[in-house]
């Protein structure tokens, strides 16, 4: 069967220019940052990037004043400015004036601006003078739309933005812009996977799409089907997948970026439950459709390893991605069943809805057979993550030092992961009366941490590891904000890639 043609989001093209064009560009908008200057009441004032003449700045400022624009954070105001070679100017607020504007402020402002546009051919922007990468990421991600399943009746006629012209005089602008566009493209790939409905994205299809992307990037791919998984003892993946007519897979995507050299090896593992009904321990109907996002970790891992290959990162990255659909049926596993995880640990499955840890434990043991220096695993693992940290803050657990390093990188890229502990005593909650472990604790306490403690049992001794719980952050169920639309967010793709880049440089 051919891989179905999934178009996904077509990212705008990105080019760099050191000055505004001489000729007016058709269907063009200039996005300029404004701050709220002056006293309490604030007046929107264009941030002087050195890229616009003082006359044009004065023209925009007075148009904004006439409209009473205040320049508050993420406020957008559209004006015309006859002195500029664009159809209109979109002023986007950064809030109070300050010396250093954080990258995330620029990224969100760019995202809000892109969301306010539709059918624009060319977007020019001076946000780039504040932070070139953040401006490009914000524009591409804010303009993200997913229309694969809209017919002509409801499909948007135009992309938000077809082309981005980044105004900047920075000498390395081409390289910086290329990297930012590649990262944003990977986030969009992860979003496309999450937004593809479970009718169309099931384990075999997900595996084939991951394979197609990886092969196009020149990577090695291995896919284990259900027969191979059974034969090789992947009891967690087989157990979770056996209630579904659509059998599970284990996908391995390999980027060898430094052959023959003494480079680090990083294992990536991502939860790929293409739909989580809960299985026999079935979930309530309300909001069950959100469980289309239960492969958000796998989506980010696939997008990241492909990005690492495209960017030719000088390290080895091996993604191990378990994929299964958690369904109730007469062939499904039962509460009380015992399965054997890959590597031999036996588990009493007290709750079939705690399925993520079962497929991940197999994948973690397999990933550790490659002797990685680091292992980064991410998953929409527990509702308890949102109880503890809310919908936008991933929980980061694992080896103390590496956990803190990854959490700091996650903060730096604006995905805002936060370090959480794995208290030893929680292991007692996972005692089983019949097997080595139970898959859930009997207590309601610290559900996110208990899941992390379960996973820790399967990580090899000398491997520095982190577990990133993205149950809330992977999928935006409320309104659009910043550069995050409703639906798949692509989190934590940028954290994963930042960790790979950091390891490539610092070991
Ligand atoms: N996929 C869910 C976790 C989840 C919840 C993701 C909400 C996104 C949003 C996971 O498989 C699950 O069902 N976890 C259970 C664990 C419990 C049975 C110990 C949960 O959180 O209720
Ligand atoms: Mn579940
Ligand atoms: Zn799940």
UniProtKB/TrEMBL annotation:
<feature type="binding site">
    <location>
        <position position="355"/>
    </location>
    <ligand>
        <name>Mn(2+) 1</name>
    </ligand>
</feature>
<keyword id="KW-0479">Metal-binding</keyword>
<keyword id="KW-0645">Protease</keyword>
<comment type="similarity">
    <text>Belongs to the peptidase M17 family.</text>
</comment>
<protein>
    <recommendedName>
        <fullName>Probable cytosol aminopeptidase</fullName>
        <ecNumber>3.4.11.1</ecNumber>
        <ecNumber>3.4.11.10</ecNumber>
    </recommendedName>
</protein>
<feature type="binding site">
    <location>
        <position position="271"/>
    </location>
    <ligand>
        <name>Mn(2+) 2</name>
    </ligand>
</feature>
<dbReference type="Pfam" id="PF00883">
    <property type="entry name" value="Peptidase_M17"/>
</dbReference>
<comment type="function">
    <text>Presumably involved in the processing and regular turnover of intracellular proteins. Catalyzes the removal of unsubstituted N-terminal amino acids from various peptides.</text>
</comment>
<keyword id="KW-0378">Hydrolase</keyword>
<feature type="binding site">
    <location>
        <position position="276"/>
    </location>
    <ligand>
        <name>Mn(2+) 2</name>
    </ligand>
</feature>
<dbReference type="GO" id="GO:0005737">
    <property type="term" value="C:cytoplasm"/>
</dbReference>
<feature type="binding site">
    <location>
        <position position="355"/>
    </location>
    <ligand>
        <name>Mn(2+) 2</name>
    </ligand>
</feature>
<dbReference type="InterPro" id="IPR000819">
    <property type="entry name" value="Peptidase_M17_C"/>
</dbReference>
<feature type="binding site">
    <location>
        <position position="276"/>
    </location>
    <ligand>
        <name>Mn(2+) 1</name>
    </ligand>
</feature>
<keyword id="KW-0464">Manganese</keyword>
<dbReference type="GO" id="GO:0070006">
    <property type="term" value="F:metalloaminopeptidase activity"/>
</dbReference>
<feature type="active site">
    <location>
        <position position="357"/>
    </location>
</feature>
<feature type="active site">
    <location>
        <position position="283"/>
    </location>
</feature>
<keyword id="KW-0031">Aminopeptidase</keyword>
<dbReference type="Pfam" id="PF02789">
    <property type="entry name" value="Peptidase_M17_N"/>
</dbReference>
<feature type="domain" description="Cytosol aminopeptidase">
    <location>
        <begin position="351"/>
        <end position="358"/>
    </location>
</feature>
<dbReference type="InterPro" id="IPR043472">
    <property type="entry name" value="Macro_dom-like"/>
</dbReference>
<feature type="binding site">
    <location>
        <position position="353"/>
    </location>
    <ligand>
        <name>Mn(2+) 1</name>
    </ligand>
</feature>
<dbReference type="GO" id="GO:0030145">
    <property type="term" value="F:manganese ion binding"/>
</dbReference>
<keyword id="KW-0963">Cytoplasm</keyword>
<dbReference type="InterPro" id="IPR023042">
    <property type="entry name" value="Peptidase_M17_leu_NH2_pept"/>
</dbReference>
<feature type="binding site">
    <location>
        <position position="294"/>
    </location>
    <ligand>
        <name>Mn(2+) 2</name>
    </ligand>
</feature>
<dbReference type="GO" id="GO:0006508">
    <property type="term" value="P:proteolysis"/>
</dbReference>
<dbReference type="InterPro" id="IPR008283">
    <property type="entry name" value="Peptidase_M17_N"/>
</dbReference>
<dbReference type="InterPro" id="IPR011356">
    <property type="entry name" value="Leucine_aapep/pepB"/>
</dbReference>
